Amino acid sequence: MSVAEDKPLFDKKNGPKLQDGKQDLRGELSAPPHAVGPEKSLLSSMIQNPEEYIGRAIEGKLTAGHFYVPSHGKLFQVLVDHFEAGKTVELVALTQHLMDRDLLDTLGGPSAITEIYTYAPTAAHFDSHLEIVKEKFILRNIITSCTQAITTAHEDPEDVQEFLDSVEQQVLEIREASETTVEMDVKSAVAEVSLYLEEFLSGDRGISGMTTGYSELDKMINGLKAPDMFVIAARPSMGKTSFMMNIVEHITVNSEKPAMVFSCEMSTVQIVQRLVFSRARFEFQKLTKGYTPTREDLKRIKSASAEIAASKLFIDDTAGITINDLRAKARRKHRDEGISCIAIDYLQLMRSTSKQASNSREREIAEISGGLKALAKELNVPVIVLAQLNRGPEGRTGSALGVPRMSDLRESGSIEQDADMVGLLYRKVYYAENQEEREEDDGEAELVLAKNRNGPTGNVPLTFIPALMRFETRSFTPEPA
pLDDT (tens digit, 9 = 90+) per residue, 191-248? Predict the structure, then answer.
């Protein structure tokens, strides 16, 4: 064997080398992020003053899994178990407890426990050390998730979009797990309730969620609240897109809150065109008939354009968008812009790419509906979803002709189950039998609130202005009981 072959392929300073002497970048990976000192400091403080610091560790969502050194995690769990069982936590009794359960040697023996006990002479840095330990744990989780993603990516997954969605979801779960929930004490909660009552009695506050712009609807659903899923369903040409965009316009322009619209049917330009002319109360159809806008018309159109341009309205007009793509885009927009509401037009035009969905349309709708409800919970925002009704209303007779029911939802089972509110939009003139009845139409419309998980159901009276593609609140006199 030659002298060259006898040389070890390892450099003490730089690590493994290849046969040609070049540095091997595939060498042993360095240890994952960790902080042994802060781990010892936390445990030391918890043993020295258990009543104060074990409780604070629990409130800070610290778990045994946060510790890089396995023995530290085991000791932490013993301390927590003792604390929750009401047992005294002190060095001698703790050492005996570990010895009785054959855990002392695993943790390094009596000297190791003593070393931890004396490690932190003061607990003044407990909170900062707690954050360091949690941050190192987050970094290790990110490395693990990314490594798994790389491995799976090399295996060439069959459904790339589903894989991408799962990777994004894992990263978001790491973020959510790292967030500490701050509990509100009873005194503060009572003060909050009292303030709400005062505002309600004074008329300053009556709706807890975001207002829709329709007073009767707001009273019934108490505003749009997270994480509710509000399904608005109707037969074609009833104006459900207009109704949804009227609500979105109120949220983004009047209430000045960011919202995102996913339109599977209309382009962004078409939607904005509707919004501008509707808000300006100008009949767009007039332009096609040779009408010249007056100075007042132009003033209103310019004002409406400026208001909508200044709003935080985001529109994605991807046709046939998949549930995974929609959720990924919504997550990013929520992260970057803090969107407070999501609206989708409409559910049956969306797609799911899973194998189960390819074999059953009902299964596909169930996955989409469930995915939208999960998105509302994940981002903690209300989601408005438009849906199509089947031909059931046309098959009814007499006074029931055209009146929608919740069972008319196409592939309805999962939609009914997932939705927190279901509103069925209905315009009587759509089913008029003759021209005279159509001419008598005064724009009367109703939103039948067929399901309201946290409130009453009933009819919301509306007026539809076809020329403006706009729904407005209709005053009415309730019939005597």
Answer: 655 665 665 555 545 567 889 989 889 888 988 988 899 999 988 888 899 999 999 9
Q: For residues 252 and 214, is the Cβ–Cβ distance under 8 A?
A: no
Long-range pairs for 294-303: beta carbons < 8 A, 24 or more residues apart: 301/276, 301/277
Chain centroid to CA 461:
31
Q: So where are the chain's domains? A: 32-176, 209-473
- Superfamily of chain region 32-176: DNAb Helicase; Chain A (1.10.860.10)
What is the rounded distance in angstroms from the CA atom of residue 247 to the CA atom of residue 230? 12
How far apart, in whole angstroms, are the C-alpha atoms of residue 371 and residue 364? Answer: 10
CATH number of this structure's domain 209-473: 3.40.50.300
Q: For the segment 430-468, what is each residue's pLDDT rounded down to a tens digit?
A: 776 666 665 566 678 889 898 998 888 888 889 888 888
- Which of 346, 356, 444 lies closest to 388 in space, CA to CA? 346
Assess whether the region 32-176 and the region 209-473 belong to the same CATH fold.
no
Encode pLDDT of 86-135 as tens digits. 677 777 878 888 887 777 877 788 888 888 888 877 777 888 898 899 88
Distance of CA 38 to the CA centre of its chain: 34
- State the burial class of residue 274 (Cβ atoms within 10 Å of its Cβ: 0-12, 13-18, 19+): buried
CA 312/CA 255 separation, integer angstroms: 11
Taking each helix axis from N to C end, the angle separating 323-337 and 160-178, rounded to the nearest 10 degrees, works out to 40
Nearest to 113 by CA among 90, 83, 137: 90
